[in-house]
Structure formats: C-alpha cells, structure tokens
Amino acid sequence: MVREAFCDLHIHTNYSDGEYPPREVVRRAARAGLSVIAITDHDNILGIDEAIEEGEAIGISVLPGVELSAEDNGNDIHILGYLFDHRNGQLKETLEFFRAERLKRAKTILEKLRELGVFLDIEEVLEEAGHGAVGRPHIAHVLIKKGYVATVREAFESYLGYESPAYVPKFKMTVKDAIDLIKKAGGIPVIAHPGISAPPHKVLEFIGLGLLGIEVWHPEHDEDTIAFYSRVADEHGLVKTGGSDYHGEQKGRANLGTIKLPYAIVRDLLALKEKLGVS
Ligand SMILES: [Zn+2]
Ligand SMILES: [Zn+2]
C-alpha cells in the first residue's frame, strides 16, 4: 500500500524562537505523519544541516527554508524562502550581519537601562536567547528574573516598548531586499501568512517586487482567506505553500500534524525551482 506523503513547510526550531533543537523537531514531524518538512527559522539557516542529517537518518525529507523579517512602513513582513543553497556565501553573510546588528542593539538597550538604574548582564541576555537572534523578549525575561518587573508586558511598557525610555529601533531589511536575497541564493521567495500581516493591496505590491509564492495555508488563515489567496496565487502564476508555523508544544501555537498538505505542494516548488534554472 502506498502511503500518501504529507508536508508542512513552516516550522521553527530553537535556532530561532522554537522550543526544540532541529533533530528533535524532525523526529516529532515524522511521528506526526509528515514525509516532507521545511525548517524555516527566523533570519537563521544554521539549523538546516542538522535537520537534513536527522531526516536522512529516519527517512523524512527536509527542505532548506528560512523566514526573513522585513519591514514595510513600520509593519513587520515575513518572507519565507525555500530551496535556496543554504551554504550560499551572501545569504550567510547577510544573516550574520543582521545577527551582529541585533547584538549591538541589545547592548545599546542595556546601556540605556543602566542609565535608568537597571543593571543587566549581556551574558544573561544571550543565555536567554540561546541559538535564537537576541531581541527584546529575552531582555524582558531577564528583567523579570532580576525582579525589576513582574511581566513581559510591564517590561515593554516601562522600558523596552516604542516610546519607552530604553527603546532602540531595530535595523531591518526591506521586503525587496528579502526577496532579492532569497532569489540570489537560488531560492523561492514566498510571503508568509499574508492574512495576518498585510492587506491584499500590499500583497499585490509585494508580488510586483518579485515574490514567487504565497503561503496560503496557515493556522491563522480562515477558509475565506485560504480561498482568497489561493485565487490570487493562481491569477499571478505563483506557487502556493503552507505550514503549521510550529514553535513547540509550550508556545500556545499550532502543533505538528495540524496542517498536513498534499505532496503536490512540494512538487510545484521543485518544478518552479527547476524552471528558474538553478539547482
Ligand atoms: Zn511569521
Ligand atoms: Zn514562522
């Protein structure tokens, strides 16, 4: 009997804000009945090799992926990338540059906090971040541990939030930068969860910038959103992708296996990659 192959193309590990290391995520995906997954950590591709190795060992296919954070007029836009060369020098260097910028920003925030009489050690903040890119939530957790605030919300309201005294703006790439970066590494740029991140006219604008796909299936998309973006993708000749946006069991997000898409999704991605002439 041939078992149907299912895929989930939006999964995080502890190389960004996911709960589990790549190998553990791959094992959990296999147990959830998935045959093909993509690891799509935020601004990080360093967990991909581990995941691919584990996948080969237990017979589940792992595709290289990433979820880049871009900005458009003050709004966060996530651009997924698939099937790029994850050893590509420029992609690695750019992501390394962004990591360095985030570290610089964290240090600047700690300096501002010090001026306010709040003393945190950067080492503690980095430990909190683990493999993930260091950011304000990690600082907020150290503020709680040290007893300066009681909740993450209070940390943002009193210190870290926009217009709060220790606020430091974040350096971000544009949507066009993110699309180009993925394409130059031989990958397919796809807008992530458009239903919760951008109004339709913006998505159309981003398509004009060179997107090649739309994430149609996502836990935050209702039936109408799925139908709408499925139609938009068809009209513009774009690939359709989807996934659970898994972050782990403790994070109050969708679990592995809740979004199981047919293998045709992967086939379309591979066909597009071939058409682009980069392998
Ligand atoms: Zn996202
Ligand atoms: Zn995500």
Brief overview, please?
The chain is of the alpha/beta class and 279 residues long. The chain is built from eleven helices and nine strands. Strands 1, 2, 3, 4, 5, 6, 7, 8 and 9 form a nine-stranded mixed beta sheet that branches.
What does this protein look like?
This protein has a domain at 106-160. By secondary structure, the protein is α/β, with parallel strands linked by helices. It has helices at residues 22-31, 48-58, 89-115, 122-129, 136-145, 152-160, 175-184, 194-197, 200-208, 223-236, 264-276, and strands spanning 6-11, 36-39, 61-72, 75-82, 173-174, 188-191, 213-217, 239-242, 261-262. The model has no long low-confidence stretch (mean pLDDT 94). α1 runs parallel beside α2, α4 crosses α5 (136-145) and α5 (136-145) crosses α6. The protein binds zinc ion (2 copies). One zinc ion binds at residues 10, 12, 40, 67, 245.
Give the topology, please.
Blueprint: E1 6-11, H1 22-31, E2 36-39, H2 48-58, E3 61-72, E4 75-82, H3 89-115, H4 122-129, H5 136-145, H6 152-160, E5 173-174, H7 175-184, E6 188-191, H8 194-197, H9 200-208, E7 213-217, H10 223-236, E8 239-242, E9 261-262, H11 264-276
Parallel strand pairs: 1-2, 2-3, 3-5, 6-7, 7-8
Antiparallel strand pairs: 1-9, 3-4, 4-6
One zinc ion is lined by residues 10, 12, 40, 67, 245.
Task: Provide tags for this entry.
alpha/beta, 9-stranded mixed β-sheet, binds zinc ion
Number of strands: 9
Distance linking N and C termini: 32 Å
Percent range for helical residues?
40-55%
Bound molecule kinds, no repeats: zinc ion
Largest sheet, in brief, is: 9 strands, mixed
List the helices and strands in order: EHEHEEHHHHEHEHHEHEEH
The stretches of 5 or more residues where confidence is low (pLDDT under 50) are none
| Overall pLDDT confidence | 94
Strand content: 15-25%
Calculate Rg over CA atoms. Answer: 19 Å
Which structural category fits the helices and strands? alpha/beta
Figure out the total of helices.
Answer: 11
Shape verdict: globular
